[in-house]
Amino acid sequence: MLGTAWDYQDHLEEFLDKLAAVEARGTLVCNPPTVVRWNAEKRYLCELEQRGASIVPTLWHGDAGRAEVLSAMDQFDTNRVVVKRQVGAGGLGQQSFTRAALPDGEWRMDRPCMIQPFLPSVVEEGEYTFVFIEGVFSHGVLKRAAKGEYRIQSLFGGYESDYAPEQADLARAQAVVNALPFDDLLYCRIDMARLPSGQLAVMEAEAIEPYLYPEQGSGLGKRLAAAILNRLN
Ligand SMILES: Nc1ncnc2c1ncn2[C@@H]1O[C@H](COP(=O)(O)OP(=O)(O)O)[C@@H](O)[C@H]1O
Ligand SMILES: [Mg+2]
Protein backbone atom coordinates (compact mmCIF):
# COMPACT_ATOMS: atom_id res chain seq x y z
CA MET A 1 0.00 0.00 0.00
CA LEU A 2 1.18 3.50 -0.71
CA GLY A 3 2.48 4.80 2.57
CA THR A 4 4.02 8.21 2.11
CA ALA A 5 2.75 10.02 -0.95
CA TRP A 6 2.78 13.47 0.54
CA ASP A 7 5.07 15.28 -1.91
CA TYR A 8 4.34 13.42 -5.15
CA GLN A 9 2.95 16.61 -6.72
CA ASP A 10 6.48 18.03 -6.85
CA HIS A 11 8.21 14.81 -8.01
CA LEU A 12 5.58 13.26 -10.24
CA GLU A 13 7.64 11.27 -12.75
CA GLU A 14 10.02 10.02 -10.05
CA PHE A 15 7.07 8.90 -7.93
CA LEU A 16 5.28 7.13 -10.80
CA ASP A 17 8.50 5.48 -12.03
CA LYS A 18 9.17 4.17 -8.55
CA LEU A 19 5.70 2.65 -8.32
CA ALA A 20 6.10 1.03 -11.74
CA ALA A 21 9.48 -0.40 -10.71
CA VAL A 22 8.03 -1.87 -7.52
CA GLU A 23 5.21 -3.45 -9.52
CA ALA A 24 7.67 -4.80 -12.12
CA ARG A 25 9.42 -6.72 -9.33
CA GLY A 26 6.20 -8.65 -8.85
CA THR A 27 4.84 -6.69 -5.89
CA LEU A 28 1.11 -6.09 -5.72
CA VAL A 29 0.72 -2.31 -5.39
CA CYS A 30 -2.44 -0.64 -4.06
CA ASN A 31 -3.83 1.42 -5.50
CA PRO A 32 -2.51 -0.01 -8.79
CA PRO A 33 0.05 2.25 -10.55
CA THR A 34 -2.23 2.67 -13.59
CA VAL A 35 -4.88 4.11 -11.28
CA VAL A 36 -2.34 6.34 -9.52
CA ARG A 37 -1.02 7.65 -12.86
CA TRP A 38 -4.56 8.46 -13.98
CA ASN A 39 -5.42 10.09 -10.65
CA ALA A 40 -2.31 12.28 -10.44
CA GLU A 41 -3.64 14.89 -12.90
CA LYS A 42 -6.94 16.49 -12.07
CA ARG A 43 -8.01 16.38 -15.71
CA TYR A 44 -9.47 13.02 -14.75
CA LEU A 45 -12.42 15.12 -13.54
CA CYS A 46 -13.42 15.66 -17.20
CA GLU A 47 -13.59 11.92 -17.73
CA LEU A 48 -15.66 11.45 -14.57
CA GLU A 49 -18.07 14.10 -15.82
CA GLN A 50 -18.38 12.42 -19.22
CA ARG A 51 -19.12 9.19 -17.39
CA GLY A 52 -21.99 10.69 -15.38
CA ALA A 53 -20.55 12.34 -12.25
CA SER A 54 -21.30 15.98 -11.40
CA ILE A 55 -18.12 17.98 -10.98
CA VAL A 56 -17.39 21.53 -9.78
CA PRO A 57 -17.47 23.74 -12.93
CA THR A 58 -13.88 24.04 -14.14
CA LEU A 59 -11.86 25.85 -16.82
CA TRP A 60 -8.61 24.18 -17.84
CA HIS A 61 -5.51 26.14 -18.84
CA GLY A 62 -1.90 25.34 -19.80
CA ASP A 63 -1.06 28.35 -17.61
CA ALA A 64 -3.03 31.26 -16.17
CA GLY A 65 -2.52 34.91 -15.31
CA ARG A 66 -4.69 37.92 -14.61
CA ALA A 67 -6.52 37.70 -17.98
CA GLU A 68 -7.59 34.08 -17.43
CA VAL A 69 -8.71 34.90 -13.88
CA LEU A 70 -10.85 37.81 -15.09
CA SER A 71 -12.28 35.80 -17.94
CA ALA A 72 -13.20 32.96 -15.55
CA MET A 73 -15.02 35.44 -13.29
CA ASP A 74 -17.02 36.62 -16.31
CA GLN A 75 -17.77 33.11 -17.56
CA PHE A 76 -18.85 31.86 -14.13
CA ASP A 77 -20.60 35.16 -13.39
CA THR A 78 -18.92 35.36 -10.01
CA ASN A 79 -16.71 37.72 -8.01
CA ARG A 80 -14.40 35.05 -6.62
CA VAL A 81 -12.50 32.12 -8.13
CA VAL A 82 -10.00 29.49 -7.04
CA VAL A 83 -6.96 28.70 -9.21
CA LYS A 84 -5.34 25.30 -8.62
CA ARG A 85 -2.56 23.20 -10.02
CA GLN A 86 -3.66 20.30 -12.25
CA VAL A 87 -1.11 18.21 -10.36
CA GLY A 88 -1.64 19.28 -6.80
CA ALA A 89 -2.42 18.12 -3.29
CA GLY A 90 -2.96 19.57 0.13
CA GLY A 91 -4.13 22.91 -1.27
CA LEU A 92 -0.49 23.83 -1.98
CA GLY A 93 0.15 26.49 -4.59
CA GLN A 94 -3.56 27.24 -4.75
CA GLN A 95 -4.79 30.83 -5.04
CA SER A 96 -8.12 32.51 -4.54
CA PHE A 97 -8.84 35.87 -6.15
CA THR A 98 -11.71 38.32 -5.95
CA ARG A 99 -12.57 41.17 -8.30
CA ALA A 100 -11.50 43.50 -5.49
CA ALA A 101 -8.15 41.71 -5.10
CA LEU A 102 -7.03 40.60 -8.55
CA PRO A 103 -3.56 39.24 -9.26
CA ASP A 104 -1.20 41.86 -10.63
CA GLY A 105 -0.36 41.94 -14.33
CA GLU A 106 2.85 39.92 -14.01
CA TRP A 107 1.39 37.10 -11.96
CA ARG A 108 1.35 33.60 -13.56
CA MET A 109 0.70 30.14 -12.17
CA ASP A 110 3.61 28.94 -14.37
CA ARG A 111 2.12 25.48 -14.83
CA PRO A 112 -1.00 23.69 -16.06
CA CYS A 113 -3.85 24.83 -13.87
CA MET A 114 -7.61 24.91 -13.41
CA ILE A 115 -9.99 27.69 -12.41
CA GLN A 116 -13.26 27.17 -10.54
CA PRO A 117 -15.90 29.47 -9.10
CA PHE A 118 -15.41 29.82 -5.36
CA LEU A 119 -18.12 27.75 -3.64
CA PRO A 120 -19.30 29.55 -0.48
CA SER A 121 -20.67 26.24 0.83
CA VAL A 122 -17.11 25.08 1.55
CA VAL A 123 -16.86 27.82 4.19
CA GLU A 124 -20.51 27.77 5.28
CA GLU A 125 -21.07 24.03 5.67
CA GLY A 126 -17.72 22.40 4.85
CA GLU A 127 -16.41 19.79 2.43
CA TYR A 128 -17.58 16.20 2.58
CA THR A 129 -15.47 13.09 2.26
CA PHE A 130 -16.86 9.67 1.45
CA VAL A 131 -14.43 6.80 1.98
CA PHE A 132 -14.95 3.71 -0.16
CA ILE A 133 -13.20 0.37 0.24
CA GLU A 134 -13.42 -1.80 -2.90
CA GLY A 135 -16.25 0.39 -4.16
CA VAL A 136 -18.32 -0.01 -0.99
CA PHE A 137 -19.05 3.02 1.21
CA SER A 138 -17.17 2.80 4.51
CA HIS A 139 -17.69 6.13 6.30
CA GLY A 140 -18.19 9.84 5.88
CA VAL A 141 -16.25 12.85 7.16
CA LEU A 142 -17.22 16.51 7.39
CA LYS A 143 -14.22 18.80 6.97
CA ARG A 144 -14.43 22.42 8.08
CA ALA A 145 -12.05 25.32 7.59
CA ALA A 146 -10.65 27.48 10.38
CA LYS A 147 -12.16 30.92 10.87
CA GLY A 148 -11.14 33.21 8.03
CA GLU A 149 -9.86 30.29 5.90
CA TYR A 150 -11.51 28.37 3.07
CA ARG A 151 -9.04 25.49 2.81
CA ILE A 152 -10.14 22.62 5.03
CA GLN A 153 -6.70 20.95 5.30
CA SER A 154 -5.25 20.61 8.81
CA LEU A 155 -2.17 22.46 7.55
CA PHE A 156 -4.44 25.54 7.40
CA GLY A 157 -6.19 24.86 10.71
CA GLY A 158 -9.01 22.73 9.27
CA TYR A 159 -10.73 20.10 11.40
CA GLU A 160 -12.88 16.99 10.84
CA SER A 161 -15.94 15.43 12.40
CA ASP A 162 -18.13 12.35 11.90
CA TYR A 163 -20.66 12.62 9.12
CA ALA A 164 -23.52 10.27 8.34
CA PRO A 165 -24.64 11.29 4.83
CA GLU A 166 -28.21 11.76 3.69
CA GLN A 167 -29.28 9.22 1.08
CA ALA A 168 -29.26 11.76 -1.77
CA ASP A 169 -25.73 12.92 -0.95
CA LEU A 170 -24.41 9.38 -0.65
CA ALA A 171 -25.97 8.57 -4.02
CA ARG A 172 -24.00 11.48 -5.57
CA ALA A 173 -20.77 10.09 -4.13
CA GLN A 174 -21.59 6.56 -5.26
CA ALA A 175 -22.23 7.92 -8.77
CA VAL A 176 -18.65 9.23 -8.80
CA VAL A 177 -17.30 5.80 -7.80
CA ASN A 178 -19.44 4.22 -10.49
CA ALA A 179 -17.98 6.64 -13.05
CA LEU A 180 -14.37 5.61 -12.31
CA PRO A 181 -12.83 3.99 -15.41
CA PHE A 182 -11.26 1.23 -13.24
CA ASP A 183 -12.72 -1.52 -11.11
CA ASP A 184 -9.59 -2.51 -9.18
CA LEU A 185 -9.29 0.26 -6.61
CA LEU A 186 -8.61 -0.90 -3.09
CA TYR A 187 -9.54 2.44 -1.56
CA CYS A 188 -10.86 5.73 -2.77
CA ARG A 189 -11.88 8.99 -1.16
CA ILE A 190 -14.55 11.06 -2.84
CA ASP A 191 -14.30 14.71 -1.76
CA MET A 192 -17.40 16.75 -2.51
CA ALA A 193 -18.79 20.25 -2.07
CA ARG A 194 -22.30 21.61 -2.48
CA LEU A 195 -23.08 23.68 -5.57
CA PRO A 196 -25.46 26.66 -5.28
CA SER A 197 -28.12 24.30 -6.74
CA GLY A 198 -27.96 22.25 -3.54
CA GLN A 199 -26.42 19.25 -5.27
CA LEU A 200 -23.08 17.79 -4.23
CA ALA A 201 -20.33 17.87 -6.87
CA VAL A 202 -17.00 16.11 -6.84
CA MET A 203 -13.99 18.27 -5.94
CA GLU A 204 -11.60 15.35 -6.24
CA ALA A 205 -11.71 11.57 -6.40
CA GLU A 206 -8.60 10.81 -4.41
CA ALA A 207 -7.07 7.40 -5.10
CA ILE A 208 -3.45 8.20 -4.24
CA GLU A 209 -3.36 9.69 -0.79
CA PRO A 210 -3.47 6.86 1.74
CA TYR A 211 -5.05 8.93 4.53
CA LEU A 212 -8.58 7.57 4.91
CA TYR A 213 -9.71 9.32 8.11
CA PRO A 214 -9.52 6.36 10.51
CA GLU A 215 -10.68 8.55 13.39
CA GLN A 216 -14.07 8.96 11.73
CA GLY A 217 -14.29 5.37 10.51
CA SER A 218 -14.29 2.93 13.39
CA GLY A 219 -14.68 -0.11 11.11
CA LEU A 220 -12.04 1.01 8.62
CA GLY A 221 -9.14 -1.14 9.85
CA LYS A 222 -11.08 -4.39 9.67
CA ARG A 223 -12.61 -3.53 6.30
CA LEU A 224 -9.28 -2.65 4.78
CA ALA A 225 -7.56 -5.70 6.25
CA ALA A 226 -10.26 -8.01 4.88
CA ALA A 227 -9.99 -6.41 1.44
CA ILE A 228 -6.19 -6.75 1.40
CA LEU A 229 -6.34 -10.39 2.55
CA ASN A 230 -8.79 -11.07 -0.23
CA ARG A 231 -6.32 -9.69 -2.79
CA LEU A 232 -3.44 -11.72 -1.41
CA ASN A 233 -5.36 -14.98 -1.59
N1 LIG B 1 -14.04 25.84 -5.94
C1 LIG B 1 -13.75 25.93 -4.64
N2 LIG B 1 -14.52 26.69 -3.82
C2 LIG B 1 -14.22 26.81 -2.50
N3 LIG B 1 -13.17 26.19 -1.91
C3 LIG B 1 -12.39 25.41 -2.68
C4 LIG B 1 -12.63 25.24 -4.08
N4 LIG B 1 -11.68 24.41 -4.57
C5 LIG B 1 -10.89 24.08 -3.54
N5 LIG B 1 -11.31 24.68 -2.39
C6 LIG B 1 -10.69 24.55 -1.06
O1 LIG B 1 -9.31 24.26 -1.24
C7 LIG B 1 -8.99 22.95 -0.75
C8 LIG B 1 -7.99 22.25 -1.66
O2 LIG B 1 -8.53 22.07 -2.96
P1 LIG B 1 -8.63 20.65 -3.67
O3 LIG B 1 -9.34 20.82 -4.95
O4 LIG B 1 -9.21 19.66 -2.71
O5 LIG B 1 -7.13 20.32 -4.01
P2 LIG B 1 -6.02 19.45 -3.27
O6 LIG B 1 -5.72 18.34 -4.21
O7 LIG B 1 -4.89 20.39 -3.12
O8 LIG B 1 -6.58 18.93 -1.98
C9 LIG B 1 -10.33 22.25 -0.67
O9 LIG B 1 -10.27 21.23 0.29
C10 LIG B 1 -11.26 23.37 -0.27
O10 LIG B 1 -11.16 23.65 1.11
MG1 LIG C 1 -8.53 18.12 -1.59
In percent, how much strand structure appears in the residues? 15-25%
Bound ligand species: adenosine-5'-diphosphate, magnesium ion
Count of alpha/pi helices: 7
Number of strands: 9
| Stretches with pLDDT under 50, minimum 5 residues | none
Structure write-up:
With 233 residues, this protein is of the alpha+beta class. It has two domains: 8-54 and 122-232, 2-Layer Sandwich (D-amino Acid Aminotransferase, Chain A, domain 1); 59-118. It is built from seven helices and nine strands. The chain has helices spanning 12-24, 33-39, 44-50, 66-76, 121-124, 167-179, 220-232; strands at residues 59-61, 80-85, 95-98, 113-117, 127-133, 136-144, 159-163, 187-194, 200-206. Strands 7-6-5-8-9 form a five-stranded antiparallel β-sheet. Strand 5 and strand 6 (136-144) form a beta hairpin. It is globular and about 60 Å long. The model has no long low-confidence stretch (mean pLDDT 96). The protein binds adenosine-5'-diphosphate (ADP) and magnesium ion. Adenosine-5'-diphosphate is lined by residues 56, 82, 84, 88-91, 94, 116, 118-119, 122, 127, 145, 150-152, 191, 203-204. This is Prokaryotic glutathione synthetase ATP-binding domain-containing protein. GO terms for molecular function: ATP binding. It comes from Qipengyuania vulgaris.
